[in-house]
Design brief:
The chain is of the alpha/beta class. 29% of the residues lie in helices and 20% in strands. It has a six-stranded mixed sheet, covered by helices on one side. A two-stranded antiparallel sheet has the order 2-3. A hairpin with a 4-residue loop joins strand 8 and strand 9. Helix 4 packs parallel to helix 5. It has a single domain, classed as Collagenase (Catalytic Domain) (3-Layer(aba) Sandwich). It contains six helices and ten strands, in the order βββαααββαββββααβ. The structure holds zinc ion. Zinc ion binds next to strand 1 and helix 5.
């Protein structure tokens, strides 16, 4: 079973505003070819049901520590940790689709690449990114559009397996607001930084100074953003729900 998660980024007034993304689970047979099943993989669920109660509670205690916002992420994902699996040093391949909208500036592309590079510099997480020139084997696709039809500046669409491991991601980034205003390059950088956080598996922070806060306007990751990503990647992906009896 593969599912898709959509996080949306919104613009609000003059400040960047991020809204809690819509979670759109699409089961086999419901989502069309783009999210069709490739045979399913329920191993994660089997493993999690065997997780001892002691281990499960220990992980939940780590997640509940307020030094990170992973608890909020778990609330938004039905108690499942979703992240990329072990990479053995292989960076995630990021492909920027050709074709850019009217009003696109080369600086936007550089800002998005800088945002990937910023996350790559975070030590302690095994996920790094490399920009590739062809779509072959790319795990992450970046698309540019002129504007969303609603108040939104970016969107992350994630596909994951039944065991919680992310499989592919698409970032859609806008160059203009829905009302037609050209976005500052710094805003595009912030949107990309925030959306890449989602593509790593992070949800929203409850702290306004974090880049993953729903209405953040900060232009860099905070220590708490980095700690949350490090904790997510220190724990195995999968469900932390209590086994049903
Ligand atoms: Zn968001």
């Amino acid at each position: 079973m593969r599912r898709i998660l959509v996080w949306a980024v919104f613009l609000g007034g003059t400040a960047m505003a991020f809204s809690l993304g819509r979670r759109v689970p699409i089961d086999e047979g419901e989502g069309g070819a783009a999210v069709s099943s490739e045979g399913g993989d329920m191993r994660g669920r089997v493993e999690s049901s065997r997780l001892s109660e002691q281990v499960r509670l220990s992980r939940l205690r780590q997640i509940a520590d307020p030094s990170t916002y992973l608890a909020g992420t778990l609330e938004a994902t039905d108690s499942t940790l979703r992240r990329w699996g072990d990479r053995d040093g292989r960076p995630l391949r990021v492909y920027f689709e050709p074709g850019t909208p009217v009003g696109y500036l080369p600086e936007y592309g550089r800002a998005a690449q800088d945002a990937f590079a910023r996350w790559t510099r975070v030590g302690g997480i095994p996920v790094q990114f490399t920009i590739v020139r062809t779509p072959d084997d790319a795990e992450v696709t970046v698309k540019w559009i002129r504007a969303f039809s609603v108040r939104r500046a970016g969107q992350a669409d994630l596909v994951w397996r039944g065991d919680g491991r992310l499989q592919e991601a698409t970032l859609t980034l806008a160059t203009h607001s829905e009302s037609g205003h050209q976005l500052p390059v710094e805003a595009v950088f912030t949107v990309a930084l925030h959306e890449i956080g989602h593509l790593l598996g992070l949800g929203h922070s409850d702290e306004p100074r974090d880049v993953m806060y729903p209405t953040t306007s900060v232009h860099d990751l905070t220590a708490r953003d980095r700690r949350t990503a490090m904790l997510l990647y220190a724990l195995p992906p999968g469900s932390l729900k209590a086994a049903s009896r």
